[in-house]
């Protein structure tokens, strides 16, 4: 069975898939006149700048096509933190380390390329999600690729397919796999038995998700800034403690990305292809741009516009890959002096070894703690993703809106919590492979819908008018 799954996985995540991701991103980059680059100061002021000025919760509320009435959504800052919870995860630590050992220092360069192109894809899908979102009979927002597939393209079957794939991902990649990573880390670092860790982890998660999107948003807005801030500070401490190696690390990144010195030996093409493959694929895995998940997570934001949430999605991809992934990569490259072949570690163990080289046991605890917190945040956000997908899928199969809400509120939480607990105990080779396949398949209907709806992806009026 594993052999067959590996063949399917190779087809889903083959080089042509990465070409499609990049092709769609380049198309929208040209259509939007390189907005992620030319408009950097504009979208930065309207995202991170608003965080620093304390105005992030303010919104214009104009032209978002939503109904008025009692608000059952969350604030803009909460929606941003919830979206970051889904994108910032174990991929920022273990994924980066794996990309570097498999593709060399140049993988970081191609992660940047992936992020730069993915930013405009994230902008497009999130903008369309907000434009087509609506409120159900209970007053809750329904938003995501399945909505703009149904209401924008008029292809309900595509939306049902996407919601099914998203539902499967939430019960695999978003729950079992993440829980397994967190519990395994706790067991290795703090000797917490897997059963005990699974029970505690699942119990805390149950307390959070039983409060719905409002409690998820409240937890996310407190957890993500604190966890990300601590990780950034300690990463900078390690990097600047060996500041003399920074130029060499950056040089190895560029030279390995194109490897001109290996051209004479005929190895350049192989090395470059590995750097591109692992850099771009790890970048997509980390920031999720193109999968459509950001469109779902931004859906509950109140008092906002499509352009506004689109720019927040761009910021999230930038923060996830260009900032957090780069910090992890620089820690590893500086501490190993870019000699990755000589290090007998990989994945999270490599990151922990590099941090502990400067911070001692505190460094190992930092990486382990970050893995656990980021995994928990990812699970929390994926619960909301899966719940939205479950409600839409059941409704789309003809059972009606009431049946969809009942399944999402009663049955799905039990399935999700069961998957989380099972993930803490089980071997997940098959689950990981299946989840990765579902994850990849999500991109195809989403990217297809984006291309057909490309005319509706526009730039913010303020940017077009040259306003600051």
From TrEMBL:
The name this protein goes by in its record: Amino acid carrier protein
Name the Pfam families on file: Na_Ala_symp (PF01235)
The species is Enterocloster hominis (ex Hitch et al. 2024)
Q: How does it sit in the membrane?
A: Multi-pass membrane protein
Give the main location. membrane
Matching entries from PROSITE patterns are given as:
NA_ALANINE_SYMP (PS00873)
Compartment(s): Cell membrane
Q: Which InterPro entries match?
A: Na/Ala_symport
Lineage: superkingdom: Bacteria
Could you list this entry's UniProt keywords, alphabetically sorted: Cell membrane, Membrane, Symport, Transmembrane, Transmembrane helix, Transport
Spell out the PANTHER family in the cross-references: AGSS FAMILY TRANSPORTER, SODIUM-ALANINE, TRANSCRIPTIONAL REGULATOR, LRP FAMILY
Q: Which family does it belong to?
A: Belongs to the alanine or glycine:cation symporter (AGCS) (TC 2.A.25) family.
What lineage, starting at the top, does this entry show? Bacteria, Bacillati, Bacillota, Clostridia, Lachnospirales
